[in-house]
Every structure is written in C-alpha cells, then in structure tokens.
Amino acid sequence: MAEAGIAAFGAAAGVAISMAIVLFALRGKGHPEPVEEPVEKPVEKPVEKPVEKPVEKPVEKPVEKPVEKPVE
Predict the structure, then answer these.
(1) What are the tens digits of pLDDT across the range 12-59?
(2) Which end of the chain has fewer beta carbons closer than 10 Å to its terminal beta carbon, N or C?
(3) Count of alpha carbons within 13 Å of 14, Cβ hemisphere only?
(4) Which own/partner contact pairs does 48-56 have at CB distance under 8 Å and 24+ positions apart?
C-alpha cells in the first residue's frame, strides 16, 4: 500500500511541476497582437454663455424751453 501512495504522490508532484513549467514558459504569449489601450474621451468643458447685461437707455433730461418774456 505504501508503494501505491508514494507513486500517487510522485505522479501528482510531477504533474504539478510540469504544469508550472508550461505556465511559466507560455506566460505573456497569449496575445500576439498589441492590446489597444482604452481611449479616453476628451472631457468637454461646459460652454459658458456670455452674460448679457441689460442695455441701459440714456435718461433723457427734459429740455428747458426758454421762457419768453411778454413784450409790453
């Protein structure tokens, strides 16, 4: 029985070692084409509308008419 247990343990260790070798040998070989970097959309700044100032109408001063003196 002990021989079968040692054989099973040896087989499991051998499989684990071979898998580790294969994994390390193939590491990074999965994508031969370059991976595209994600393209960030440019951040659009909100467009500020110019503040329209109310147009001030010039204040019209009353025109003073010259007072005519009555001729006597």
Answers:
(1) 999 999 999 988 888 766 666 666 676 677 777 777 777 777 777 777
(2) C
(3) 6
(4) none
How many Cβ atoms sit within 10 Å of the Cβ of residue 24?
9
Structure-block tokens of residue 54: 């109310």
Which of 22, 23, 2, 20 is CA-nearest to residue 12? 20
The 3 state secondary structure assigned to the chain is: CHHHHHHHHHHHHHHHHHHHHHHHHCCCCCCCCCCCCCCCCCCCCCCCCCCCCCCCCCCCCCCCCCCCCCCC
The model scores a pTM over 0.85: no
Give dist(CA 30, CA 32) in Å, integer. 6
